[in-house]
Amino acid sequence: MDIEQFRKAGYQAIDRICDYYYSLENRPVISKVEPGYLKDHLAQSIPEKGEDFQIIADDYQRFIVPGLTHWQHPSFFAYFPTACTFEGILADLYATSACNPGFNWSSSPACTELEASVMDWAAQLLGLSPVFLNGSGTGGGSLQSTASDSALIAVVAARSLYQRDHHNTKMEDLVIYTTTQTHSLGLKAGLILGLSVRALEVTAEDEFALRGVTLQKALDDDEKQGKKPFILIATVGTTSSGAIDNIPEIQQVVKKQPSLWVHIDAAWAGAALSCPENRERCYLKEINEFANSFCTNFHKWGLVNFDASTLWVRNRRHLTDALDVTPPFLRTTHGDAGTVIDYRNWHLALGRRFRSLKMWFVFRSFGAEGFRSYIRRTIQLNKKFAEYVSLSDKLILVTSPSLALTVFRLSPKSISPAQPALDEQSLNNLNRLFYGRISARDDIMLTQTVLNGVYCIRLAVGAARTNESHIKQACDLLHKEAELAIEAWEQ
Ligand code: PLP
């Protein structure tokens, strides 16, 4: 493809993307293809002779789009939606056209300098303490691919720091603390690094948030056993229920255990900190006072296209001490002088995508005010949905609604009094039947979860195009499916 062919194909691609967005609402949310569907449409191997690009572009529409689940659909309420914006799409296009793995400052100064600046903008937007800013010279922020990568980096840095201060620690004694509600990233970090992971118990009475007493007891037990817990991954906004670990209580415990690194995984909920009214509830003050590292994914609830996971550390030296490996071919004058950031030493790989461009485009185009108003709108929409559940004679809330997430299930009262009373297992089965009906539909997408043995359903608001009419549709549809599930159950 030459430059003029690229120009033509590029215009067409933008036209088609616009058509896609115009048609999004009329498409099914969920792809209905069967496993292996694509094999029949693909050649067995790379074509020997290059093909005409128009045919390739048309095949994308014919074969790939039908196999996509439309995460930008306004009735996508599954997992945590990823709010994508046109500003981000365009930034990715520019970034990919520069095709630049800016790992050192000198390998592309703009990549490093823009990242350092937008990470400071983002920190200020969320109200993070100035100690986390790149401008502080001590702490700093960088863009990672995912929250799982961010957590892994935090664990690597924490381990290195702990081993520096506790020379004779055996690897087999080191323990990563998580809770039973921590995302799979905790176990995965343990798996990758060959370290033990201890998931601390949380209870329904505490709305699945980690309490200080539980942490203290685990520390006491482990001390007796000669174990060395060196990091706690605490969560602000768990995946299953949006639980917020009790950070003030954790802070009190950690005061007596300063060698315990505390990483805050706020992959989803972190964006809510942009609105001052959410800060107390998410314990921002305490996070600012003592957390060693903090992560949120702007590609979840932050209007930036996947991927854009932000990771801040209180002390950048802890990252570079653990991750700086500099063979001669990576040495540079500025790097040697220590006058610039070389982001390759702040993450796992060498090369890195030019992610800061999309953060810059989105932040400038929305402004802090536009960003906050999107967050407030989604929280408001979730409030409406939660109100509907509270007033329903068929559904109940399982936990208090958290920001833009509601967890609910069919209520035992929805079964007719003539039926035998439901035990917990039957109620779970009834709810599985209910969810089975919802997930068989293609016009809405929600996810299931289990909270300490209780089967429930989650609805997360966040897709950029969701409005009140989609919440109303979701309520009507859930009401109908609840009736049908109960009817089927009673027969
Ligand atoms: N942490 C929380 C609280 C999440 O909800 C998720 C994903 O939904 C993750 C971590 C994992 O995110 P990633 O895919 O960026 O690793």
TrEMBL record:
Keywords from UniProt, A to Z, are:
Decarboxylase, Lyase, Pyridoxal phosphate, Transferase
Against SUPFAM superfamilies, the record matches this protein to:
PLP-dependent transferases
Which cofactor does the UniProt annotation name? pyridoxal 5'-phosphate
Cellular component, GO, one term: cytoplasm
Which Gene3D superfamilies does the record cross-reference, listed alphabetically? Aspartate Aminotransferase, domain 1 (3.90.1150.10), dopa decarboxylase, N-terminal domain (1.20.1340.10), Type I PLP-dependent aspartate aminotransferase-like (Major domain) (3.40.640.10)
Q: Does the keyword Cell membrane apply?
A: no
Instruction: Note whether Flavoprotein occurs among the keywords.
Output: no
GO MF annotations in UniProt: carboxy-lyase activity; pyridoxal phosphate binding; transferase activity
Domain of life, per the record?
Eukaryota
Q: Can you tell me which family this protein belongs to? A: Belongs to the group II decarboxylase family.
This chain's protein is named Pyridoxal phosphate-dependent transferase
